[in-house]
């Protein structure tokens, strides 16, 4: 085509995003391949149905995936936790320059007031920082409860970290690249010196690393709004949607092949819907995570799971895993528009597959 932007229909745009997120009929078969392509699995502890990382992996891999696969990959350091996200071991080098520049980004960006405050707090509690590092050097890996809290200046915030000095110190030591998550012992997350966890690969310079991260994330998303700081992809417009977009060239090639979708139940934190404006604009889907709202204000449920059918988001599943009762409790299936017979059957089958994967009996409270 000429020098102008690629012209895409809304259906083209959605199919590009679904394919890029490994949610079409061609399922991947390996967890590490999934994480390498998506670039991350967010390690959020909320487990109303199952932890988000496990739901994301299951929605791609299907019944072949088991939660212990992720735990084993983290314990064996084939995946490494960086900023509460599981990332491929080889990608850690893309974050080391930023860690070394903490609290900055290594790109010369001015520090925010919060970053300045965080740096001053760590400096004021440098003795505690050194105590934690020494404890890990002597006895690591260790859980949080076995690390010394010798902070002299308490951490103050209006949120859940108020006075949680050791928790905050660990966050900053991870951000500085001095401490790293080292797997699990039962329910305890373990921590150790980053030099024992991170691969001894050359540190990628900050600007080059930021560019490479942008390229990889764009490939995982398929279609995004242009990033002025790190231009990637090729320019595109979507019929009926204002503004410009950036499309992954590999996905343009894939448009020549027939799109075959499937049904998937998504984590509320899934990358397909992480950009809520992109979701609303291109999928025309009304959704919000409601776990932080009072129950009386929820429309779809505490941890409602978006329902993907083909290239459309068609509804939300309000479900809860009651492991005491051995049940996956289905509170509601919210249909954005009434499901036809084939859609209803496909969604019903996927809900049963979710219950089977969890090893729970499906129980309807509708």
Rounded radius of gyration (Å):
22 Å
Q: Order of SSEs, N→C?
A: EHHEHHEEHHHEHEEHHEEEHEHHEEEHE
What share of the residues does DSSP label as strand, in percent?
15-25%
The residue fraction in helices comes out at 25-40%
Q: Quick one: how many beta strands? A: 15
The biggest sheet, with number of strands, parallel, antiparallel or mixed sense and barrel status, is:
5 strands, mixed
Explain what you see:
The chain has helices at residues 10-20, 31-38, 52-61, 67-75, 96-100, 113-124, 126-139, 165-175, 194-197, 206-221, 249-254, 271-274, 276-283, 341-358; strands at 6-8, 41-42, 79-81, 85-88, 142-143, 179-185, 188-193, 223-224, 234-238, 241-247, 263-265, 305-309, 312-322, 327-335, 361-364. The chain is of the alpha+beta class and 366 residues long. The protein has a 5-stranded mixed beta sheet with strand order 11-12-13-14-15. The longest helix is centred in the C-terminal third of the chain and has 18 residues, at 341-358. The model has no long low-confidence stretch (mean pLDDT 95).
Secondary-structure topology with pairs:
Blueprint: E1 6-8, H1 10-20, H2 31-38, E2 41-42, H3 52-61, H4 67-75, E3 79-81, E4 85-88, H5 96-100, H6 113-124, H7 126-139, E5 142-143, H8 165-175, E6 179-185, E7 188-193, H9 194-197, H10 206-221, E8 223-224, E9 234-238, E10 241-247, H11 249-254, E11 263-265, H12 271-274, H13 276-283, E12 305-309, E13 312-322, E14 327-335, H14 341-358, E15 361-364
Parallel strand pairs: 1-9, 14-15
Antiparallel strand pairs: 2-4, 3-4, 5-7, 6-7, 8-10, 9-10, 11-12, 12-13, 13-14
């Amino acid at each position: 085509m000429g020098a102008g932007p690629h012209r895409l229909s809304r259906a083209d745009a959605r199919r590009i995003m679904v394919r890029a997120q490994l949610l079409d009929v061609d399922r991947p078969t390996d967890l590490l391949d999934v994480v390498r392509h998506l670039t991350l699995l967010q390690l959020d502890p909320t487990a109303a149905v199952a932890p988000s990382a496990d739901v994301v992996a299951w929605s791609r891999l299907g019944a072949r995936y088991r939660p212990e696969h992720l735990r084993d990959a983290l314990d064996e350091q084939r995946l490494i936790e960086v900023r509460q996200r599981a990332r491929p071991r080889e990608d850690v080098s893309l974050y080391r320059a930023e860690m070394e520049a903490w609290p900055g980004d290594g790109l010369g960006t001015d520090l925010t007031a919060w970053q300045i405050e965080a740096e001053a707090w760590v400096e004021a509690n440098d003795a505690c920082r050194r105590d934690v590092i020494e404890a890990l050097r002597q006895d690591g890996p260790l859980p949080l409860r076995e690390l010394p809290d010798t902070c002299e200046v308490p951490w103050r915030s209006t949120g859940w970290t108020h006075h949680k000095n050791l928790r905050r110190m660990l966050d900053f030591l991870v951000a500085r690249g001095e401490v790293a998550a080292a797997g699990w012992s039962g329910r305890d997350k373990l921590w150790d010196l980053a030099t024992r966890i991170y691969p001894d690969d050359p540190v990628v310079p900050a600007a080059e690393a930021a560019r490479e991260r942008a390229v990889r994330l764009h490939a995982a998303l398929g279609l995004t709004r242009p990033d002025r700081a790190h231009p990637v992809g090729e320019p595109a417009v979507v019929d009926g949607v204002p503004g410009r977009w950036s499309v992954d060239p590999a996905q343009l090639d894939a448009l020549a092949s027939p799109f075959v979708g499937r049904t998937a139940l998504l984590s509320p934190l899934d990358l397909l819907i992480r950009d809520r404006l992109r979701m609303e604009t291109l999928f025309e889907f009304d959704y919000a995570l409601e776990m932080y709202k009072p129950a009386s204000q929820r429309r779809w449920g505490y941890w409602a799971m978006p329902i993907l059918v083909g290239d459309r988001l068609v509804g939300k599943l309000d479900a809860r895993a009651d492991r005491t009762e051995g049940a996956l409790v289905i509170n509601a299936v919210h249909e954005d528009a009434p499901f036809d017979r084939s859609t209803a059957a496909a969604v019903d089958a996927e809900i049963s597959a979710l219950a089977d994967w969890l090893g729970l009996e499906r129980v309807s409270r509708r």
